[in-house]
Amino acid sequence: MQTQAKVVVFLPCCGSKHPSGRLLLQNTRGTFLPAESTEPLIQARTSYGFNLDQDSRLTSGFCLYTGSPYQAISSRHLVEEAILKNELRLFILSAGYGVLDAREPIHDYDEQMKGKVAKYWRDAGLVNVIEKIIETIKPSQVYGFFSGERYWSNPSSKYRYFFTESILQSVRHTDSIKSAGCFYRKEGRGVKAILNALGKAFNDCFACGFDPDFASETEISNRRYGNVFIGYDRFV
User: Fold this and answer.
1) Residue 79 lies in a domain
2) How many Å apart are CA 116 and CA 122, to the nearest integer?
3) Lower CB count within 10 Å: N or C terminus of the chain?
4) pLDDT for res 5
5) What pTM did the predictor assign?
6) How much is the average pLDDT of 161-179?
7) Is 92 a domain residue?
8) Is residue 1 part of a domain?
9) Residue 186's domain spans which residues?
Protein backbone atom coordinates (compact mmCIF):
# COMPACT_ATOMS: atom_id res chain seq x y z
CA MET A 1 0.00 0.00 0.00
CA GLN A 2 1.28 3.46 -0.90
CA THR A 3 1.67 5.74 2.08
CA GLN A 4 3.41 8.82 0.68
CA ALA A 5 0.39 11.12 0.94
CA LYS A 6 1.18 13.97 3.32
CA VAL A 7 -2.36 15.28 3.73
CA VAL A 8 -5.11 13.18 5.32
CA VAL A 9 -8.72 14.40 5.51
CA PHE A 10 -11.76 12.91 7.24
CA LEU A 11 -15.37 13.65 6.27
CA PRO A 12 -18.65 12.30 7.68
CA CYS A 13 -20.95 10.09 5.65
CA CYS A 14 -24.45 11.32 4.84
CA GLY A 15 -27.94 9.91 4.44
CA SER A 16 -28.33 10.64 0.73
CA LYS A 17 -26.63 7.99 -1.40
CA HIS A 18 -26.64 6.86 -5.03
CA PRO A 19 -25.14 3.42 -5.68
CA SER A 20 -24.23 4.18 -9.27
CA GLY A 21 -21.55 1.53 -9.54
CA ARG A 22 -18.91 4.17 -10.22
CA LEU A 23 -15.47 3.14 -8.99
CA LEU A 24 -12.48 5.44 -8.68
CA LEU A 25 -10.31 2.41 -9.39
CA GLN A 26 -11.75 -0.30 -11.64
CA ASN A 27 -11.79 -4.01 -10.78
CA THR A 28 -10.74 -3.46 -7.18
CA ARG A 29 -11.92 -4.77 -3.86
CA GLY A 30 -10.65 -4.39 -0.33
CA THR A 31 -10.42 -1.54 2.13
CA PHE A 32 -7.21 0.24 0.98
CA LEU A 33 -6.43 0.48 4.69
CA PRO A 34 -3.20 -0.51 6.45
CA ALA A 35 -3.06 -4.21 7.27
CA GLU A 36 -2.76 -3.44 10.98
CA SER A 37 -6.21 -1.85 11.02
CA THR A 38 -7.97 -3.98 8.41
CA GLU A 39 -8.58 -7.15 10.41
CA PRO A 40 -10.24 -5.54 13.48
CA LEU A 41 -12.28 -3.26 11.23
CA ILE A 42 -13.55 -6.09 9.02
CA GLN A 43 -14.43 -8.11 12.11
CA ALA A 44 -16.36 -5.17 13.55
CA ARG A 45 -18.20 -4.62 10.27
CA THR A 46 -19.42 -8.21 10.13
CA SER A 47 -20.26 -8.72 13.79
CA TYR A 48 -23.11 -6.24 14.23
CA GLY A 49 -25.46 -7.03 11.36
CA PHE A 50 -25.57 -3.62 9.70
CA ASN A 51 -28.43 -2.84 7.33
CA LEU A 52 -26.48 -3.10 4.07
CA ASP A 53 -28.18 -3.46 0.70
CA GLN A 54 -26.12 -6.34 -0.68
CA ASP A 55 -28.00 -6.13 -3.99
CA SER A 56 -26.90 -2.54 -4.61
CA ARG A 57 -23.98 -1.91 -6.94
CA LEU A 58 -20.61 -1.52 -5.27
CA THR A 59 -19.63 2.14 -5.50
CA SER A 60 -16.53 3.96 -4.28
CA GLY A 61 -17.30 5.76 -1.04
CA PHE A 62 -16.56 9.23 -2.39
CA CYS A 63 -18.95 8.55 -5.29
CA LEU A 64 -21.73 6.95 -3.23
CA TYR A 65 -22.60 9.93 -1.02
CA THR A 66 -24.64 12.61 -2.77
CA GLY A 67 -25.98 14.79 0.06
CA SER A 68 -24.38 17.53 2.10
CA PRO A 69 -21.49 18.12 2.45
CA TYR A 70 -20.63 16.32 -0.80
CA GLN A 71 -22.92 18.46 -2.97
CA ALA A 72 -20.96 21.52 -1.87
CA ILE A 73 -17.64 20.19 -3.21
CA SER A 74 -17.48 21.96 -6.57
CA SER A 75 -14.01 20.63 -7.41
CA ARG A 76 -14.93 16.95 -7.09
CA HIS A 77 -13.02 15.91 -10.22
CA LEU A 78 -9.87 17.60 -8.91
CA VAL A 79 -10.33 15.96 -5.51
CA GLU A 80 -10.68 12.57 -7.20
CA GLU A 81 -7.55 13.24 -9.24
CA ALA A 82 -5.60 14.09 -6.07
CA ILE A 83 -6.88 10.91 -4.41
CA LEU A 84 -5.85 8.75 -7.36
CA LYS A 85 -2.40 10.37 -7.46
CA ASN A 86 -2.12 9.64 -3.72
CA GLU A 87 -1.55 13.33 -3.04
CA LEU A 88 -4.56 13.27 -0.71
CA ARG A 89 -5.82 10.43 1.47
CA LEU A 90 -9.50 10.99 2.05
CA PHE A 91 -11.32 8.90 4.65
CA ILE A 92 -15.02 8.82 5.49
CA LEU A 93 -16.46 8.06 8.92
CA SER A 94 -19.41 5.80 8.21
CA ALA A 95 -22.21 4.45 10.40
CA GLY A 96 -22.32 1.30 8.27
CA TYR A 97 -18.61 0.73 7.69
CA GLY A 98 -16.86 2.50 10.58
CA VAL A 99 -14.16 4.19 8.54
CA LEU A 100 -13.41 3.75 4.86
CA ASP A 101 -10.95 4.98 2.28
CA ALA A 102 -12.70 7.17 -0.32
CA ARG A 103 -11.73 4.64 -3.03
CA GLU A 104 -13.23 1.61 -1.27
CA PRO A 105 -16.18 -0.03 -3.07
CA ILE A 106 -19.13 -0.26 -0.68
CA HIS A 107 -22.83 -1.07 -0.80
CA ASP A 108 -25.71 1.27 -0.09
CA TYR A 109 -26.83 1.11 3.55
CA ASP A 110 -29.28 2.58 6.01
CA GLU A 111 -27.58 3.33 9.32
CA GLN A 112 -26.95 6.42 11.44
CA MET A 113 -24.05 7.13 13.77
CA LYS A 114 -26.09 7.46 16.93
CA GLY A 115 -27.58 5.35 19.71
CA LYS A 116 -26.67 1.65 19.63
CA VAL A 117 -24.73 1.96 16.37
CA ALA A 118 -22.43 4.68 17.69
CA LYS A 119 -21.94 2.81 20.96
CA TYR A 120 -21.10 -0.34 19.02
CA TRP A 121 -18.36 1.43 17.04
CA ARG A 122 -16.98 2.95 20.23
CA ASP A 123 -16.84 -0.43 21.96
CA ALA A 124 -15.41 -2.05 18.82
CA GLY A 125 -12.38 0.25 19.03
CA LEU A 126 -13.00 2.54 16.05
CA VAL A 127 -10.79 5.20 17.65
CA ASN A 128 -7.88 2.76 17.76
CA VAL A 129 -8.48 1.68 14.15
CA ILE A 130 -8.27 5.29 12.96
CA GLU A 131 -5.22 5.94 15.10
CA LYS A 132 -3.46 2.95 13.50
CA ILE A 133 -4.29 4.28 10.03
CA ILE A 134 -2.68 7.63 10.86
CA GLU A 135 0.36 6.05 12.46
CA THR A 136 0.93 3.93 9.35
CA ILE A 137 0.49 6.72 6.81
CA LYS A 138 2.53 9.23 8.85
CA PRO A 139 1.00 12.36 7.30
CA SER A 140 2.24 15.88 7.94
CA GLN A 141 -1.32 17.31 7.98
CA VAL A 142 -4.59 15.84 9.25
CA TYR A 143 -7.92 17.67 9.02
CA GLY A 144 -11.52 16.80 9.79
CA PHE A 145 -14.74 18.57 8.80
CA PHE A 146 -17.51 17.83 11.31
CA SER A 147 -20.48 19.40 13.04
CA GLY A 148 -21.44 19.14 16.68
CA GLU A 149 -19.27 19.16 19.78
CA ARG A 150 -16.15 17.07 20.27
CA TYR A 151 -17.62 15.22 23.27
CA TRP A 152 -19.42 11.87 23.34
CA SER A 153 -22.15 13.24 25.63
CA ASN A 154 -23.58 15.35 22.81
CA PRO A 155 -25.99 13.09 20.87
CA SER A 156 -25.23 14.76 17.51
CA SER A 157 -21.45 14.71 17.85
CA LYS A 158 -20.39 11.10 17.37
CA TYR A 159 -18.50 11.67 14.09
CA ARG A 160 -16.52 14.53 15.54
CA TYR A 161 -15.89 12.55 18.73
CA PHE A 162 -14.36 9.62 16.84
CA PHE A 163 -12.18 11.92 14.74
CA THR A 164 -11.04 14.03 17.68
CA GLU A 165 -10.16 11.15 20.00
CA SER A 166 -8.26 9.22 17.35
CA ILE A 167 -6.23 12.19 16.12
CA LEU A 168 -5.39 13.34 19.64
CA GLN A 169 -4.02 9.85 20.29
CA SER A 170 -2.14 9.89 16.97
CA VAL A 171 -0.54 13.24 17.73
CA ARG A 172 0.97 11.79 20.89
CA HIS A 173 2.49 8.86 18.99
CA THR A 174 3.28 10.22 15.51
CA ASP A 175 6.07 12.76 15.12
CA SER A 176 5.29 13.43 11.46
CA ILE A 177 2.13 15.47 12.15
CA LYS A 178 2.86 19.19 11.93
CA SER A 179 -0.69 20.49 11.54
CA ALA A 180 -3.91 18.83 12.70
CA GLY A 181 -7.35 19.97 13.72
CA CYS A 182 -11.07 19.99 13.07
CA PHE A 183 -13.12 22.46 11.06
CA TYR A 184 -16.48 22.59 12.80
CA ARG A 185 -19.78 24.46 12.98
CA LYS A 186 -19.24 27.29 15.45
CA GLU A 187 -22.50 29.16 14.84
CA GLY A 188 -25.54 28.68 12.67
CA ARG A 189 -28.55 26.40 12.41
CA GLY A 190 -30.01 23.89 10.03
CA VAL A 191 -28.47 20.47 9.38
CA LYS A 192 -28.30 20.95 5.62
CA ALA A 193 -26.87 24.47 5.92
CA ILE A 194 -24.22 23.31 8.40
CA LEU A 195 -23.10 20.33 6.33
CA ASN A 196 -23.13 22.45 3.19
CA ALA A 197 -20.86 24.98 4.90
CA LEU A 198 -18.47 22.22 5.98
CA GLY A 199 -18.35 20.94 2.41
CA LYS A 200 -17.53 24.42 1.15
CA ALA A 201 -14.84 24.80 3.79
CA PHE A 202 -13.27 21.55 2.62
CA ASN A 203 -13.51 22.73 -0.98
CA ASP A 204 -11.78 26.01 -0.14
CA CYS A 205 -9.12 24.27 1.94
CA PHE A 206 -8.42 21.89 -0.94
CA ALA A 207 -8.30 24.78 -3.44
CA CYS A 208 -5.51 26.48 -1.48
CA GLY A 209 -3.48 23.28 -1.32
CA PHE A 210 -4.23 22.69 2.37
CA ASP A 211 -2.08 25.67 3.27
CA PRO A 212 -1.80 25.64 7.10
CA ASP A 213 -2.54 29.38 7.01
CA PHE A 214 -6.08 28.52 5.92
CA ALA A 215 -6.58 26.69 9.22
CA SER A 216 -4.90 29.48 11.19
CA GLU A 217 -7.08 32.16 9.60
CA THR A 218 -10.20 30.11 10.29
CA GLU A 219 -9.13 29.64 13.90
CA ILE A 220 -8.71 33.39 14.36
CA SER A 221 -11.56 34.85 12.35
CA ASN A 222 -13.90 31.95 11.45
CA ARG A 223 -15.38 31.56 7.97
CA ARG A 224 -18.91 32.41 7.02
CA TYR A 225 -20.97 30.43 4.53
CA GLY A 226 -24.49 31.80 4.46
CA ASN A 227 -25.75 31.87 8.06
CA VAL A 228 -23.15 29.34 9.26
CA PHE A 229 -19.79 30.20 10.79
CA ILE A 230 -17.05 27.58 10.57
CA GLY A 231 -14.36 27.55 13.26
CA TYR A 232 -11.18 25.55 13.68
CA ASP A 233 -10.25 23.39 16.67
CA ARG A 234 -6.46 23.04 16.61
CA PHE A 235 -4.73 19.91 17.90
CA VAL A 236 -1.22 20.79 16.61
Assistant:
1) yes
2) 10
3) N
4) 66
5) 0.96
6) 95
7) yes
8) no
9) 7-234
